[in-house]
């Protein structure tokens, strides 16, 4: 599968008469009203054998509303999805009725079967007299830009409120003809390029002002830069087929849409384990010494400096960094601490596994220490032998092929991103630090006389509160990323969470934890629905980072305390998956339960005494106003 490295098979390589005819045959079936089947599309490409169809386990339905005639390129979205592990069902809506369909509450766009709604519009929809912009007065220019931005934001908001899934659209990009107009185009405030820039800024401002949620706005300029402005427009298609973008641009747009869907649908990797020699620096430090390794201002050392800068960016985006190397640990650590050209420093590394043991054993040890599953890990090593050993003994760890040439290795890192996500929370940014703190906790645990002493020594404090609008992104993130300690694994969108917050019969609780080593952030979420004298915990999730500290017991006690006097019974709901057996065992431990074939429920009597029994004496409670 190629989805992890986000490398797509070049479609132009399949552009032969025979395959073109086969593709046309498949596409004509769709035009005649028969939906395209994935296997039919794959059969038109000679690369179909490279795709493991059994691994296309993620099925998504996508509706595309458009004011482009993008029909000829649309089969590519299925193929691009397949190389990323997505089985996409596509519904291409009629040309030219995007605005009417979005504004019509009875539109087929809002059919519940669609997971994603893609809006493909063009600038001409909002500023049809753009050609006259040079003659607009400053007031007229500002008014037209504001009106266009407000209308586009209104379409987004309407689509997001009526569509149950995720809405994807693009901004207006840059004027592809701007560079040909010379310097005046970039200097004059009335030029088409200036209007493009101001319209994009106004659009994003209106989206914030109108509180548009559940919409991903992709930046078209990124694709234009990637292709080059000379390859973006196609006057033949624009004038004869009402499509403002050439075929290469259409494929780029669809590829960007599929990348986003893949990022939304697949669980992002969390940990990057790095070899050292010929990975973070050139040469072998154990043989060449500090003076012999290549890590300086000249090639090839400067390539490794650039690589470390890219890895540091991943660290700041919440990727946990670890070192897994066959080396002398003291030598490696001293290099991280003292080498003047090292970008990565010890404070960026959350876990060290530097010794002469098999790397697969070290990885298993790291997995246990971090309390994560193996499919959360990525391993980078220049040795093909080491890569093969990890693939054989730790098959769920992603081990990409990496080039040996430093320039090619730098290019690899520039496009490598199995950690892609659609949002970045404070918890993400500090994840590496939290795992460093966890290492310190484990040291304390090893020296404690008993578990009770360990818990008390941590000096844990927590805060539980009812979620508000600003908490929505974190709730969505937890619903998608928490697996092992997630009772129902319901994956929620921002719109889903918004409905829960608006429901007067539902309370969404969040739990935050800190101890003497630092803050763990928001680590728990529970959705509690109240009915006549009963409270049902429909969703219960807790970060694996804080397990084995009795926080889960305390969370249940806090929830029960909230419903004392309101409900007589607290029900814990559970839906089994391949990964969440841990939470079932927890429910079994705290209450006897009744199981059904598909769904399990545990019932607890709600009393103050029962709530106190679940509250842990070594976990204090603080309020938002208290000093943390």
Give an overview in words:
There is one protein chain. This protein is of the alpha/beta class and 628 residues long. The protein contains 24 helices and 17 strands. The protein has 3 domains: 58-265, SGNH hydrolase (Rossmann fold, 3-Layer(aba) Sandwich), CATH 3.40.50; 271-415, HAD superfamily/HAD-like (Rossmann fold, 3-Layer(aba) Sandwich); 458-621, Aminopeptidase, CATH 3.40.630.30. Helix 22 links the parallel strand 13 (534-542) and strand 14. It starts with 16 loop residues before the first helix and ends in a 7-residue tail after the last strand. Mean pLDDT is 85; it is low at 1-36, 44-50 and 593-598.
Distance between the termini: 46 Å
Examine the secondary-structure arrangement and name the CATH architecture of the largest domain. 3-Layer(aba) Sandwich
Computed structural class: alpha/beta
Radius of gyration, CA atoms, in whole angstroms: 27 Å
Considering the protein shown, what is the CATH homologous superfamily of the largest domain? SGNH hydrolase
* Beta-strand residue percentage: 15-25%
Number of spatially distinct domains: 3
Low-pLDDT regions? 1-36, 44-50, 593-598
């Amino acid at each position: 599968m190629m989805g992890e490295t986000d490398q797509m098979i070049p479609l132009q390589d399949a552009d032969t008469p025979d395959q073109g005819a086969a593709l046309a045959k498949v596409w004509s079936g769709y035009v005649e009203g028969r939906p395209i089947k994935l296997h039919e599309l794959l059969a038109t490409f000679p690369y179909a054998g490279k795709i493991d169809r059994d691994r296309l386990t993620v099925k998504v339905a996508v509706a595309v509303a458009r004011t482009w005639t993008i029909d000829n390129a649309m089969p590519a979205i299925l193929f691009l999805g397949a190389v990323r592990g997505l089985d996409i069902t596509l519904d291409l809506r009629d040309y030219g009725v995007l605005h009417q369909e979005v504004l019509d509450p009875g539109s087929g766009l809002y059919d519940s079967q669609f997971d994603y709604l893609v809006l493909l519009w063009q600038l001409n929809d909002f500023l049809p007299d753009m050609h006259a912009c040079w003659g607009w007065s400053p007031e007229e220019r500002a008014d037209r830009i504001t009106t266009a931005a407000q209308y586009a934001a209104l379409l987004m908001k309407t689509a997001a409120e009526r569509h149950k899934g995720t809405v994807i659209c693009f901004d207006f990009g840059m004027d592809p003809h701007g560079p040909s107009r010379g310097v005046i185009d970039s200097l004059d405030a009335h030029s088409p390029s200036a209007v493009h820039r101001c319209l994009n800024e106004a659009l994003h401002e209106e989206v914030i002002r109108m509180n548009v949620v559940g919409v991903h706005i992709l930046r078209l300029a990124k694709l234009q830069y990637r292709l080059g402005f000379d390859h973006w427009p196609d006057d033949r298609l624009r004038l004869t087929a009402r499509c403002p973008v050439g075929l290469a641009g259409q494929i780029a747009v669809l590829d960007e849409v599929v990348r986003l869907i893949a990022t939304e649908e697949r669980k992002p990797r969390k940990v990057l384990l790095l070899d050292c020699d010929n990975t973070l620096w050139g040469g072998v430090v154990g043989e060449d010494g500090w003076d012999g390794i290549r890590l300086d201002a000249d090639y090839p050392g400067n390539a490794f400096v650039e690589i470390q800068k890219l890895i540091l960016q991943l660290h700041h985006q919440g990727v946990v960094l670890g070192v897994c190397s066959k080396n002398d640990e003291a030598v490696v650590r001293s290099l991280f601490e003292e080498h003047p050209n090292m970008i990565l420093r010890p404070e960026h590394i959350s876990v060290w596994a530097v010794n002469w043991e098999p790397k697969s054993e070290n990885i298993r040890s790291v997995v246990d220490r971090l309390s994560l599953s193996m499919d959360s890990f990525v391993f980078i090593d220049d040795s093909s032998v080491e890569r093969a050993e990890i693939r054989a003994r730790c098959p769920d760890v992603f081990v990409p092929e990496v080039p040996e040439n430093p320039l090619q290795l730098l290019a690899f890192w520039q496009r490598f991103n199995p950690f892609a996500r659609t949002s970045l929370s404070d918890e993400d940014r500090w994840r590496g630090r939290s795992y460093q703190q966890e290492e310190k906790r484990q040291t304390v645990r090893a020296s404690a006389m008993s578990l009770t002493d360990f818990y008390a020594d941590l000096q844990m404090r927590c805060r539980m509160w009812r979620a508000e609008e600003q908490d929505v992104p974190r709730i969505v993130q937890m619903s998608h990323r928490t697996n092992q300690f997630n009772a129902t694994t319901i994956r929620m969108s921002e719109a889903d969470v918004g409905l829960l917050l608006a429901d007067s019969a539902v309370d969404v609780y969040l739990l935050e934890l800190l101890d003497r080593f630092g803050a763990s952030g928001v680590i728990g979420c529970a959705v509690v629905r109240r009915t006549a004298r009963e409270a049902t915990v429909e969703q219960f999730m807790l970060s694996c980072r804080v397990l084995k500290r009795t926080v889960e017991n305390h969370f249940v006690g806090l929830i029960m305390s909230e419903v004392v006097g309101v409900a007589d019974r607290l029900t814990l709901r559970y839906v089994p998956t391949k990964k969440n057996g841990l939470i079932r065992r927890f429910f079994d431990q705290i209450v006897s339960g009744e199981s059904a074939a598909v769904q399990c429920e545990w019932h607890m009597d709600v009393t103050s005494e029962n709530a106190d029994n679940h509250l842990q004496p070594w976990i204090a409670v603080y309020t938002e106003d208290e000093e943390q």
